Amino acid sequence: MRPLVSLRAALDDPALLGSVMAGASREPMRALLLASQGEALTSSELEHYQRLTQREAPPTQRVREMHILAGRRSGKSSGVAALACYLSGLCSYEDCLQAGERGLVLCIAASTRQARTILDYISGCLDASPPLSRLVTGRTQWSLSLSNGIDVEVRAADHRGLRGPTVVAALADEICHWRSDESASPDTEIIAAVRPSLVTTRGQLISLGSPHAKRGFGYQVWRKHFGEKGNPRILVAWGPTRAFNDTVPAEEIAAAYEEDAARASAEWDAQWRSDIDTFVSPETVAACVIPGRFELPRVSCVRYVAFIDASGGSGTDSMTLAIAHRERIGERDVAVLDLVREVRPPFSPDVVTVEFAGIIRGYGISRATSDRWGSAWVSESFGKHGVRVEQCARPRSDLYREMLAPLNSGRIELLDNQRLVAQLCGLERRTARSGRDSIDHAQGQHDDVINAAAGVLVEALGGTQLIEFSESMIRRLELGLI
User: Are residues 267 and 331 in the same domain?
Assistant: First the structure.
């Protein structure tokens, strides 16, 4: 990689990037961008750099990685977008690209819709500069093509779709909030998939986000590399919103603290949340998974139990079924998960009910347990197909809590099911202001599969409390009297 102009010159030139990074409020971000390229800092820029990185001396050469962990509205996305414009339009990669090969500036976020935010910023930066705008030869909803052989493209955070391209820079947006029903650790897997693509171009990995729970790639890189103890080639900046952007009104942040202090301290002051913790470690879950076991057939001498997590079929929730049994292994009783079925929306609840009832009867089961959703409808619908359904008296948080000890002690055998494992590892333990703990999925994620699995495993070990619905209770539920 060879810079055609220095980043300092580009940021000072109104015809290049000066118009999008001008003003005193942008100086903290400019200091970090310049430091990431190993360029000299002014005295005031050095003060910002030292405060945000807790390092005395700035880098003397381009860093390999830069990670910015800052409060909301700090300007980190627009600042990194300006850097992406510089790397894509004002640097040459002739020395590391083969003839006909195109380099890629890769923008990754939890979804392509979210990653599009940085693409919009990049597009705006290019359009604001007459020389840079002339480089744009093609635009789609998710990409930009430049005449110098560089493409800018957004992709969702899925490690399976990020291997292969030659990447000159990778931007990971809101990395502290990456979650997936398909992976227990999507952020670390994605970073591991992207890093080799940067090797031949000596491209930079740049992540940004607002701190959240004390887990995942963002938290790990902060713990390991923030401050003087970190690798000098890995730059980590951390600070509250107003340390990056003092135009954000202090009274708005104060109002957020009055509403929810724990959330405000993370979103505006970039503090890692102490009221959110991982429910169970990925290592514990992995020890309970039987590799290659995807489903177990019925054995005639075994007594099975079933749990249903119902859904209406038109929202975002799946309808799931889990079947398990208890075995005596050595001196211990072990709950064995035999089957997990999930039907994702949209679907017909009546059609899925017929399918699930057939599976339940196929395991010799005449009675199943369900969660509290649609209790009367679930009981009546499955009853028509020969399965008596009783409602579980405990909320899912209690089921998760009761499942933890058997998980930790290895008294549970799980199926080799990615969504099951990812949802279990994605559960969070939250402490309310009252001091009471609750266990639930992260915001925007799902727990339909693990809810059914937890219910059936706890029941297999003899731990659930059931509410049996009589015909009169069902009628009273339908009338809203219960």
Answer: no
Q: For the chain, what is the domain count?
A: 2
Q: Using alpha carbons only, what angle is made at residue 382 by residues 378 and 388, rounded to the nearest 5 degrees?
A: 100
What pLDDT digit, counting tens, does each position of 1-45 carry?
899 999 999 999 999 999 888 889 999 999 999 999 999 999 999
User: Do 341 and 451 lie in a common domain?
Assistant: yes
| Beta strands 304-309 and 367-370, pairing class | parallel
In order of 245, 305, 399, the CA distances from 365 in angstroms are 61, 7, 21
Question: What phi and psi, each to the nearest 5 degrees, are found at residue 94?
Answer: -60, -30
Query: Could you tell me which of 90, 113, 109 has the C-alpha nearest to residue 12?
Result: 90
Do 471 and 322 reside in the same domain of the chain?
yes
Same domain? For 259 and 361 the reply is no
Strand partners, 208: 68, 173
Final residue before a domain boundary, out of 237, 252, 274? 274
What single DSSP character describes residue 281? -
Q: Domain of 456: which CATH number?
A: 3.30.420.240
CA distance 207 to 227: 17
| Same-domain status, 210 and 310 | no
Phi, psi at residue 370, to the nearest 5°? -130, 165
> Cβ(264)–Cβ(71) under 8 Å?
no
pTM above 0.70, yes or no: yes
List the domain range (segments joined by +) for residue 357.
Answer: 282-478
Query: 308 and 258, same structural domain?
Result: no
Determine if the peptide bond prior to 196 is cis (ω within 30°).
no
Do 152 and 146 contact (CB within 8 A), yes or no?
Answer: yes
Q: In three state form, how does the secondary structure of 137-205 look?
A: EEECCCEEEECCCEEEEEEECCHHHCCCCCEEEEEEECHHHCCCCCCCCHHHHHHHHHHHHHCCCCCEE
What confidence tens digit (pLDDT) does each residue in 253-306 have? 999 998 888 889 989 999 998 777 778 888 899 999 999 999 999 998 899 999
